[in-house]
Amino acid sequence: MHYSIFSLARQALLGHRGWTAAWRDASPKSSYDVLVIGGGGHGLATAYYLARHFGIANIAVLEKGWIGSGNAGRNTTIIRSNYLLPGNNPFYEFSMQLWEGLEKDLNYNAMVSQRGVLNLFHSDAQRDAAARRGNAMRLHGVDAELLDRTAVRRMLPFLDFDNARFPIEGGLLQRRGGTARHDAVVWGYARAASDRGVDIVQNCEVTGMIREGDRVVGVETTRGTIRAPKVALAVAGNTSRLTAMAGLRMPLESHVLQAFVSEAIKPLIPGVVTFGAGHFYISQSDKGGLVFGGDIDGYNSYAQRGNLPTVEDVCESGMALMPMIGRLRMLRSWGGIMDMSMDGSPIIDHTPLDGLYLNAGWCYGGFKATPASGWCFAHLIARDEPHPVARAFRLDRFASGYLLDEKGQGAQPNLH
Ligand SMILES: Cc1cc2nc3c(=O)[nH]c(=O)nc-3n(C[C@H](O)[C@H](O)[C@H](O)COP(=O)(O)OP(=O)(O)OC[C@H]3O[C@@H](n4cnc5c(N)ncnc54)[C@H](O)[C@@H]3O)c2cc1C
């Protein structure tokens, strides 16, 4: 069913009784051409682009819970392409361009809102780093503006500009950055993939990998054995668990990242703002709640819930940036499991096992990557060679030392 003003009007006249389910909740077959494990944004986008652009439609997406129950439905919805390194920059800009055409492509309202992302700086050294990043972005054709203190004050007068420890000196603005509605992205990809024949199989946990020598030829699931010549992992924080089933260890750690939303207030924050002197970022949802987050919890975990010290830490940073936030009540907080890589950058690559493909290491920045990640992973699976903008996301870089350390923090997941 095509969604349009005409279908809406037609359904209104019919009392809204004619809407059909957005996607088929399929039962698994015994074999497919491609199995995508993980019904988050990345897995569903991969299946969609495989069907749409690479002519492979005999695909199942296997999801252990319901689609979007992982990080795709838990993130703070920020999209941007303000990257510094040549290995990252073209990929994230490709993603941004896909976001810009996504709703038309999927025929689905993903609430893509390019309301701007502003990274604040608080010292001369940080200004230099922001200018360098902005210049690198512009050299790659990405929009970037360096704002001084007065321009930031005009935009966000309520921030604590004269904070004794962290005075605000300015910010790097990407106006094309912003937010998108995370659930809608999942539902939009699911609907578009299902329309092209992809089986979306929920409540189907992968419990084992079937190996024939050095080749993976299928999976064991809670709904039976399913075979396929190509098995693609897009399971975010559960990656190391899944690869362990095939006998592989990954250069990843799983950590919880929490997010928070306040009670709804009138429009206050025009875009996304990040604090440069602590890990804190904030935006405002269309419902009015302030959505914010900060650091990962400092220990490894597969539990989708966080701990109180991080709540305190995030709220402290929030108070340092905009003290008036202390007058608000917090409504909810939640956690998701991050697949933290050792250099903070992702992996889209073959594994050492034939037939097993890997999409992982997104840390807490994978939502913005969803469209490009899906496209590039589909390219790799279909053609067995990396997409030109994702060549740097190799698994063997952790052995060769050719790291993509965007933040220059080294192999410390807690700092990425
Ligand atoms: C609190 C929070 C805030 C974030 N904020 C941002 C942000 O603002 N911007 C940004 O770019 N990124 C952000 N991220 C990161 C982003 O959400 C993730 O990097 C991205 O969503 C990961 O890809 P995914 O959507 O495919 O993962 P997921 O949605 O986690 O998908 C993986 C799926 O695999 C399934 N699965 C796991 N094991 C199995 C199994 N054995 N069998 C079958 N299925 C399995 C899971 O149930 C899950 O649904 C944030 C994350 C969190 C938690």
From TrEMBL:
Report the EC code(s) recorded for this entry: 1.5.3.24
Q: Which UniProt keywords apply?
A: Cytoplasm, FAD, Flavoprotein, FMN, Nucleotide-binding, Oxidoreductase
Which part of the chain is the Rhodanese domain?
A: 34-78
Predominant localisation class = cytoplasm
Q: Where in the cell is it found?
A: Cytoplasm
Catalytic reaction equation(s): sarcosine + (6S)-5,6,7,8-tetrahydrofolate + O2 = (6R)-5,10-methylene-5,6,7,8-tetrahydrofolate + glycine + H2O2; sarcosine + O2 + H2O = formaldehyde + glycine + H2O2
Domain of life, source organism: Bacteria
Q: Which cofactor does it need?
A: FMN; FAD
Q: Name the InterPro entries on file.
A: FAD-dep_OxRdtase (IPR006076), FAD/NAD-bd_sf (IPR036188), Rhodanese-like_dom (IPR001763), SoxB (IPR006278)
Q: Give the record's family classification.
A: Belongs to the SoxB family.
- PANTHER family per the UniProt record, alphabetical: FAD-DEPENDENT OXIDOREDUCTASE DOMAIN-CONTAINING PROTEIN 1 (PTHR13847:SF287), SARCOSINE DEHYDROGENASE-RELATED (PTHR13847)
Matches recorded under NCBIfam families? soxB (TIGR01373)
Q: What is the protein name for this chain? A: Sarcosine oxidase subunit beta
Q: Which organism is it from?
A: Bradyrhizobium diversitatis
